[in-house]
Amino acid sequence: MAENGTKFERVLLKLSGEALQGEQAYGVDPARIDSVAKQIHDVIERGVQVAVVVGAGNIYRGMSGAAAGMDRATADYMGMIATVLNGIALQDALERQGTHTRVLSAITMAEVAEPYIRRRAMRHLEKGRAVIFAAGTGNPFFTTDTAAALRALEIHADAILMAKNGVEGVFDADPNEVPDAKLIEDISHHEAISRGLKVMDVTALSLCMDNRLPIYVFNMNDESNIARIVNGERVGTVVS
């Protein structure tokens, strides 16, 4: 138990862009982003330091751009910029909840976000602010999963909370294709990699394995799940 009475003192929440999309075909659903912001706000109110990495699948996917003939690096930079849009939207929602929030971008955008500086990020967290890491790692060819793993290690997070959109955790097969796929409650990083399970991309998973960083994979659609994980309850899948 942490000093604040919860399981963790500092966590990094990885949100997909789709987690902010709700039932819309694309973009940000105001009701969904307000719900996500409230969950983060409630956890911070309990004394847990929360950093967030958000994807951009609701706006743009670099890989799909590359597949359509665009240069991969160019496509990835466009995806990184799209994560800044999501980060600013989430910042607005959090501040409406009363949570002081900072967006730190790996690509310089001085008018809308602070530059990513590790020590500054940690100081913001220590002051009880939500910190949103935008623009991935700032480098093409790396996903926001890898950005989440990297930032979590840099800020000494206790765990990554990997939010999935409508999926309870890690299954032994794709539940959309195999109706009787079984939820895996506990698995090692190595086994997840060797079995090719879709926890996060292999680069990110290897980084977590090498540094013994646990990953909690859960369904973002259940609004109680973040609080339950922070309380130490068993939710979804634990990769450790």
Q: How would you describe what is shown here?
A:
Helix content is 37%, strand content 18%. By secondary structure, it is an alpha/beta fold. It has a single domain, classed as Acetylglutamate kinase-like (Carbamate kinase, 3-Layer(aba) Sandwich). The strands form two sheets. The chain has a nine-stranded mixed β-sheet, with helices on both faces. Strand 1 (10-15), helix 1 and strand 2 (49-54) form a beta-alpha-beta unit. Helix 1 packs across helix 3 and helix 5 packs parallel to helix 7 (202-210). The longest helix is centred in the middle third of the chain and has 25 residues, at 72-96. The chain starts with 9 loop residues before the first strand and ends with a strand. The mean pLDDT is 92.
End-to-end gap: 18 Å
Low-confidence segments: none
Helix content: 25-40%
Number of helices: 8
Return the average pLDDT rounded to an integer. Answer: 92
Read across the widest sheet, the strand sequence of neighbours is: 4-3-5-2-1-6-10-11-9
If you compute it from the alpha carbons, what radius of gyration comes out, rounded to the nearest whole angstrom? 17 Å
- Number of structural units classed as domains: 1
Strand content: 15-25%
Query: Which class do the helix and strand fractions yield?
Result: alpha/beta
Q: What's the shape?
A: globular
Top CATH class? Alpha Beta
Order of helices and strands: EHEHHEEHEHEEEEHHEHE
DSSP summary, beta strand count: 11
